Amino acid sequence: MSFNTFGHVFRFTTWGESHGPAIGAVVDGCPPGIPLSETDIQPWLDQRRPGTSRFTTQRQEPDQVRILSGVFEGRTTGTPISLMIENVDQRSKDYSEVAKAYRPGHADYAYDAKYGFRDYRGGGRSSARETASRVAAGAVARCVIPEVTITAWVEAIGGDAIDPANFDVAEIGRNPFFCPDAQAAARWETLVDAARKSGSSLGAIVACAATGVPAGWGAPLYAKLDAELAAACMGINAVKGVEIGDGFGAATLRGEDNADPMRPGADGPEFLANHAGGIAGGIATGQPVTLRVAFKPTSSILTPVATISPTGEAAEIATRGRHDPCVGIRGVPVVEAMVALVLADQKLLHHAQCGGGIG
Amino acid sequence: MSFNTFGHVFRFTTWGESHGPAIGAVVDGCPPGIPLSETDIQPWLDQRRPGTSRFTTQRQEPDQVRILSGVFEGRTTGTPISLMIENVDQRSKDYSEVAKAYRPGHADYAYDAKYGFRDYRGGGRSSARETASRVAAGAVARCVIPEVTITAWVEAIGGDAIDPANFDVAEIGRNPFFCPDAQAAARWETLVDAARKSGSSLGAIVACAATGVPAGWGAPLYAKLDAELAAACMGINAVKGVEIGDGFGAATLRGEDNADPMRPGADGPEFLANHAGGIAGGIATGQPVTLRVAFKPTSSILTPVATISPTGEAAEIATRGRHDPCVGIRGVPVVEAMVALVLADQKLLHHAQCGGGIG
Amino acid sequence: MSFNTFGHVFRFTTWGESHGPAIGAVVDGCPPGIPLSETDIQPWLDQRRPGTSRFTTQRQEPDQVRILSGVFEGRTTGTPISLMIENVDQRSKDYSEVAKAYRPGHADYAYDAKYGFRDYRGGGRSSARETASRVAAGAVARCVIPEVTITAWVEAIGGDAIDPANFDVAEIGRNPFFCPDAQAAARWETLVDAARKSGSSLGAIVACAATGVPAGWGAPLYAKLDAELAAACMGINAVKGVEIGDGFGAATLRGEDNADPMRPGADGPEFLANHAGGIAGGIATGQPVTLRVAFKPTSSILTPVATISPTGEAAEIATRGRHDPCVGIRGVPVVEAMVALVLADQKLLHHAQCGGGIG
Amino acid sequence: MSFNTFGHVFRFTTWGESHGPAIGAVVDGCPPGIPLSETDIQPWLDQRRPGTSRFTTQRQEPDQVRILSGVFEGRTTGTPISLMIENVDQRSKDYSEVAKAYRPGHADYAYDAKYGFRDYRGGGRSSARETASRVAAGAVARCVIPEVTITAWVEAIGGDAIDPANFDVAEIGRNPFFCPDAQAAARWETLVDAARKSGSSLGAIVACAATGVPAGWGAPLYAKLDAELAAACMGINAVKGVEIGDGFGAATLRGEDNADPMRPGADGPEFLANHAGGIAGGIATGQPVTLRVAFKPTSSILTPVATISPTGEAAEIATRGRHDPCVGIRGVPVVEAMVALVLADQKLLHHAQCGGGIG
Prior knowledge:
Four copies of one chain form a homotetramer.
Chain A: E1 5-6, E2 11-16, E3 22-28, H1 38-48, E4 65-67, E5 71-72, E6 75-76, E7 81-86, H2 96-100, H3 108-115, H4 131-144, E8 149-157, E9 160-161, H5 182-197, E10 204-211, H6 225-234, E11 239-244, H7 255-258, E12 262-265, E13 268-271, E14 279-280, E15 283-284, E16 289-295, E17 305-308, E18 314-317, H8 331-354
Antiparallel strand pairs in A: 1-2, 2-3, 3-7, 4-7, 5-6, 8-9, 8-10, 10-16, 11-16, 12-13, 14-15, 17-18
């Protein structure tokens, strides 16, 4: 993991800015012979795509992905897979305001502090638009781990959480919030609409479960499965917290309440609980890998906020124009993609050290 | 970051098992000319050392570190620094019980699933004893970042949190809990004693603040400062959650409440809040870098728990003998070390790309 | 260095096949603020471009490079620089012959042995066409090391070497062989023409000198400057040998004849010889870094050669159509590019560990 | 590959100086379950050990290796294997002369230029003593690739080459020169003795062949098998050149003379020649992997050489005391070790991407 590359043996490198001609990802280390075409990738991009409901930014991007290399006659060749998505809706708006004042909560000031200057158009490289590259790369990763099913959903928006009793996985795809609780989805419609109309924004919690991860994937001690997942998810724009299994809740438990007892089962060991979120010692236990990710509220809001200019003068800025009222919603496919990318990498790492076929 | 090595240009590799002859770390990429001797490292190890109070395991380990290379005439030479700590108190106890049944919550089953067999004595490689190597390496890292002050403390044990109003940094070193709130420390004495006596264990939350981190450190997009911190801390034994700044709390906020407004100050920009925990877009903003880490309760408890044997039969296990009633307490110096290691690496990465002296 | 990425902190990743829609490179870790546009890259690509004389392949490729990211208002931003070159002259020839029999000397059999199948059109990923990506990335690297001047030339073709007494650096650009000896260039015209007409091919030796490399660049022990140069050059298509300084010649010398004595000079130390090729202990000494690279003769020849088919039957193959009669000639800009890429990386690595500005 | 670590998934990190208390290597990524003890490592160290004949340095080092971690009940556990060799014969000689003047040909000046100062005792980190760590790590690597047989030998000393007609692999172990030609060995006795007595030194060429490498190992494009071997061998102390297969000789050939024709064989494809040295496109072809490595003459000689002091004054230095008259001789086990380390890594990388058991 270094700069703009993620992963050890299944690796991807992303490039591109919000308002450049295109963005993309190069996926390296993919096993050969895997059927792959744009139609395996596009559906995931469509989930993340902006402009599909009034609860996301109105930037219109078709997010059409092209495979430029690494696939021959419909199958991966084992060489780098170059994925490119053209930027279409680079609205020729006036960015002079963003150029003249740092937007609090955004990376504007930090990028200038680091690099001396920045591409300020639409957030440049720090735009959440880059996550489209992750989703595209993640779609390739999914093909490497057909034994695994990854499902993410929004668990809470602005502090309003789903009722676990209402959890219905089929519901996730039926509403614009990736919400598994139909009642919560109805409440969130009002909640998010209100935030959007008032120019405010809301934070959210995204949960994710990966089932089918074989016991044994993971690489102690400094490529632990949970550590890699933490890095993968904390690196998503707007994320401020990651927990595995019971996470912060585990810090309030006593040992006997946090244990995951085992017993012999028909198909191998069975666990009677999963406080650990499917990972012990950095290695998968075979239980579902579960995690939760905290997204802060979108930093772009209509309320003016005190700030400074690049030359250090006091200023004030309000973000007009297109933005997501709750960036966590579109974080769902991104979390899924990052989890897929970590798992594909760990699968190959495991095969490197401990053997096993491509599967 | 790969297997047993952490970091990009300031890197360390650890080795060793709980009951082998020794454990150690090789620190690579350290700038030359930095004064370094065992006395710069030992005090941090002494903080983590077991057996210093009745609230930690009674294993007696002097944890004396030796520098075997990389230092000449009292200064680092720029070559690898080999640090070794001999294991002294490898109690010749009977491990047949641990060999015969997987301890729930421990890595026993996962290691066997991965590697086919394991060194079961005292947890082998997955023992928290390995964190002594981290603390030793972290002590070297501190010397690389003299501009930074890192302070961690225990914020809650078993759900009983400190009162922020009582926060006194000087108090941290005065009690066996690294607790900045004298009243909480008094309560915890009872709390932890009760857990210890009943053979139970408690979870904890460790908080950490690093001040003096210059704006600009950090490396988007896949070596983001927050992502690296998340990986570093999630990889510590027993950690199940990491958050930066407001973390999961941010997910409940509205955009205007989560903003960190700026204004011109006497010594450059001033921030009016620090919800972001000192990091934006994966890059330090110059504010204190703040994070919180959730430790699960120690998995070793006296209460028997259902489990299975390596051959798959039903079994039951209770962990007698020496263990920490609250492993989070001794997590404090480990969290500090990991934060130091990330920051030293990021400082050098920043110099690689953006220039700047050794400082 | 891993799979399709080269470098530690200044890194590039290439992608693309000979007959896909495009090839490209993503350059990561570039310092910010460096003036860069396509016009800084195109001249180097033009040097490597095929079809410029009758001594190279007649494939017509304009090799127009586009910068898709990482540059804003004419300067690098510190974010990944995506470079793309479209494949234009993918002659729709019949590749069924190449699909049916492994070309000896080419990677056909090895790729199939590794991946199970391959993109056989024009060599697919193993085509020397990929080196255009290296040259493009190398052009960026040159901008990172303005203090260094890199010059490569052809020293021998088919065993016919230049006369060092005739060496004239200005001559290199005046003939189609990158030959610094006008008399040798005249001879090679006949030599290469004859090989071309008879459908044969010739090997070559490319020499390279980098002046201005400051003493101190290099990173012992496993990122030694000479080791990195060796990997960089040995990885170029058709290269079979690399030597630094006197190279294999040094193996015939006695210690006193191989010494590079030093004396005080006006601007620091002066060396009285450079048998070492400017590198000692893996670190630059400040002398010119010199190396020589052996290119085998192009494997594509008209003479039929015995081979087998993918299904294991005996076959015979002759390569008709476009190819370089001496692939070493166009190796010159590629060697220069790889040297530039290694030096840029080593410069930044040096700054990471030992400080120093971007300069 | 970075600083003091070599390899991608099978990796080793070395530490230690010539005159420190010890040197060592940490081997990471080793597959679990492989039988390993000190007796698997010691014989290879004994081959490299100094002081075994009058043709090597008279420093007396038993080079006893200890395994400090990663092995349990006689088998590797998959965790880091820490290997340590104590320095015993750190002769308490006066190093003031070496401290006061840079030894030409050595890394003295370069280290000072890089790091500002150095451990000058016996060459410090740049001493060939470090290669003992490589040999120890290489012995572990051999256990990972039981299908491969690696044999290296000295092919020429001071320009006096063996006669291929006399090649007898059994002879290699019968003389102090690792020479497969008994007649050449007899000549070299006189040759090296004369150099030793006159305080001079001789260069050498070491050749190596690895048989049993399966077709398919290797990782294009920037972890090519030949590129990795080149880096591995060029990084050995005193090495100035590396060639694969016909190497520089291939540069003098015509395409038809350099072809390696194939035909169907009883056990798969058969090659009728091996100019390529068993590697095409960076991937093994299944033929023997062959390479040659050029060692310069030992830089330590009795003849005084002009040099400068660390403060820049003119000086003269002659190296009295213990040294190898031909450092290439003891390079043989080091070349074998590096080849083993590359192959073990490539085997695991291949399994990562393309599957296959531990074997």
